[in-house]
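Question: Send over one sample?
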Amino acid sequence: METLSKVIKAKRKENGLTQEDLSLKSGLGLRLIREIEQGKTSMRMDKVNQLLSLFGMELVPAPKSRDHE
């Protein structure tokens, strides 16, 4: 299971975007983009979904992985 930070960083790079580009395209602050990619653990779900929507994704409930129990 990949972490949110890894997914967002990978998608950003796949699309040839810098953190600054992603900030502008998503309407989110550069600081938040950096914090998310560094593994920030608490953030607003609407902001995460705003960012993920650029890549055709959204945050959804999923079964908890046994590796993280």
